[in-house]
């Protein structure tokens, strides 16, 4: 049975870059790895509804914190068998976003903290009711909201069809979300967390060896 490892962080934190570099380093260390990114835009109807709502389609759906969170959760529920199959076949299943993203962003939108009702609701929905696999470890790629916003802006300008969505455009939301992520990591929500500085170069090879040897955190 493989280990489920999740990369979390703000929009623009560099999760995709970390996923790519860590995947290569894991392969170099002799581990088998498969990756998956959430939301699964273009692959799951719930994810596509999320994207459309974040770009102000579907009336007031985007304004509903619980409604949007349910769509995110349904995307993961529909991917649960894929995750389990990956765990059966590989040493590491590496996810770009998972349940903690739903908890952090929803709580931030409601101006709650990590011990609030919304975070409890997400756990009950996705882990207890939907039965999603629990991560073995979570990596928080921490950057300041300002750095994340600048990176998201650059990505929006440089990538076709990648205009900033309602969450990425809300600087206050990003700042509050960063605070919730820090709380989730400090409390070891769902699993142990390791915090990485997203503004500095890190030792991907060393991190991969820790993951492959099940020494993280």
UniProtKB/TrEMBL annotation:
Belongs to the thymidylate kinase family. GO terms for molecular function: dTMP kinase activity. Its EC number is 2.7.4.9. Residues 7-174 form the Thymidylate kinase-like domain. It is an enzyme of class 2 (transferase). NCBIfam families: PRK07933.1. PANTHER family: THYMIDYLATE KINASE, UMP-CMP KINASE 2, MITOCHONDRIAL. The keyword Transferase applies. HAMAP family: Thymidylate_kinase. InterPro entries: P-loop_NTPase, Thymidylate_kin-like_dom, Thymidylate_kinase. CDD domains: TMPK (cd01672). It comes from Amycolatopsis pigmentata. This is Thymidylate kinase. Phosphorylation of dTMP to form dTDP in both de novo and salvage pathways of dTTP synthesis. Keywords: ATP-binding, Kinase, Nucleotide biosynthesis, Nucleotide-binding, Transferase. It catalyses: dTMP + ATP = dTDP + ADP.
């Amino acid at each position: 049975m493989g280990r489920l490892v999740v990369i979390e962080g703000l929009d623009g934190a560099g999760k995709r870059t970390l996923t790519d570099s860590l995947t290569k380093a894991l392969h170099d260390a002799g581990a088998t790895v498969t990756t998956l990114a959430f939301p699964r835009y273009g692959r799951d109807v719930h994810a596509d509804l999320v994207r459309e709502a974040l770009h102000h389609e579907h009336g007031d759906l985007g304004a509903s914190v619980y409604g949007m969170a349910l769509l995110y959760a349904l995307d993961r529920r529909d991917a649960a068998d894929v995750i389990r199959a990956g765990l059966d076949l590989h040493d590491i299943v590496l996810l770009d976003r998972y349940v903690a993203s739903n908890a952090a962003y929803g709580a931030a939108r409601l101006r709650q903290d990590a011990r609030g009702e919304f975070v409890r609701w997400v756990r009950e929905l996705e882990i207890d009711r939907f039965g999603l696999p629990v991560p073995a470890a979570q990596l928080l790629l921490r950057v300041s909201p300002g750095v994340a916003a600048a990176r998201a802006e650059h990505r929006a300008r440089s990538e076709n069809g990648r205009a900033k969505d309602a969450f990425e455009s809300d600087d206050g939301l990003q700042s509050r979300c960063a605070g919730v992520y820090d709380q989730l990591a400090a409390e070891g929500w769902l699993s142990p967390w390791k915090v990485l500085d997203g503004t500095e170069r890190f030792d991907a090879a060393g991190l991969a060896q820790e993951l492959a040897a099940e020494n993280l955190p």
